[in-house]
Specification:
This protein is an alpha/beta fold. The protein has two domains: 156 residues, Rossmann fold; 102 residues, Hypothetical Protein, Haloacid Dehalogenase-like Hydrolase, Chain: A, domain 2. The protein has nine helices and 14 strands.
Length: 273
């Protein structure tokens, strides 16, 4: 590990570089900027929508193509150019949405960087909006027949007893036909089976001419698992699940103790020496 020196740093946002209040601390912001200034490629790899992640990307000065919607979209944040896009398709989107309706579960649809919901005042919608800062489009009951190719789908429950059941039932019903991941202890993220952060990150690394062995990836949730395994050095946050910690090369402090900044600072100090 001592010989490892990252040429690319991939960072998840929520639960990783953002604290529990969804804030980027001055220390974390400064260390990301320092990494960029030394010539390290810094990439955001998030489940968030492009417009939700863009303010942070601009704030810290990231110019590399980044990974959005868990890898369903890879996009250049400077030009706005979409470099890769893989939606669920109209038929599969409709099938999943119909299944969630039959179960009485909440689901929201993503299309063309908008998020569509039944009711903008639903507590689950508000919970998501408070995180993403993206106002949803309320369709009412028309959501259930909204036939689009969804970039991803998001099931949400605020009931901790329902959540594991929702995850298990979604996975058993759709299996390998979709990519399923969890985040926030409330979100079931559903995307095309070829979509995950590792695949998105591999596209970015190839574009930048960087080998995966030179990639440092830091994350905290189930949707970070693939990239943490894929990267040359994968780091799980202290607030991660035991399952994620088990596949990581290293575990750092939690997001409220700036674990991501701690890791990046270490490599910057090694480079300085």
């Amino acid at each position: 590990m001592n010989s490892f020196q990252p040429r690319l740093i991939a960072l998840d946002m929520d639960g990783t570089i953002l604290n529990s209040s969804s804030e980027l601390t001055p220390r974390t912001k400064n260390v990301i900027r320092s990494a960029i200034s030394t010539g390290i490629a810094v990439v955001i790899a998030t489940g968030r929508m492009y417009p939700s992640a863009l303010p942070l990307i601009k704030e810290v000065g990231i110019s590399c193509p980044s990974v959005f919607y868990n890898g369903a979209i890879v996009r250049d944040p400077v030009s706005g150019e979409i470099l890769h896009e893989k939606g669920l398709g109209i038929d599969l989107t409709a099938e999943i949405v119909s299944y969630y309706k039959d179960q009485g579960w909440y689901i929201q649809i993503y299309n063309n960087d908008k998020v569509y919901v039944v009711d903008g005042n639903d507590p689950r919608t508000k919970f998501y909006e408070n995180i993403s800062k993206i106002p949803p489009v309320s369709l009412g009951e028309k959501l259930w027949d909204f036939n689009v190719d969804s970039t991803k789908l998001l099931g949400i429950t605020l009931d901790e007893t329902v959540f594991p059941y929702m995850v298990e039932k979604t996975k058993s019903r759709f299996g390998s036909r979709v990519y399923t991941a969890v985040s926030w202890g409330a979100f079931v993220e559903i995307a095309h089976p070829e979509v995950n952060k590792a695949n998105g990150l591999a596209l970015v690394a190839e574009r930048l001419g960087i080998d995966r062995k030179d990639v440092l990836a830091i994350g905290d949730a189930g949707n970070d698992k693939e990239m943490i395994v894929w990267a040359g050095h994968g780091v799980a946050m202290g607030n991660s699940s035991d399952q994620l910690k088990a596949v990581a090369d290293e575990v750092t402090l939690d997001n409220d103790n700036e674990g991501a900044a701690t890791i990046i600072e270490r490599y910057l100090s090694m480079e300085a020496n």
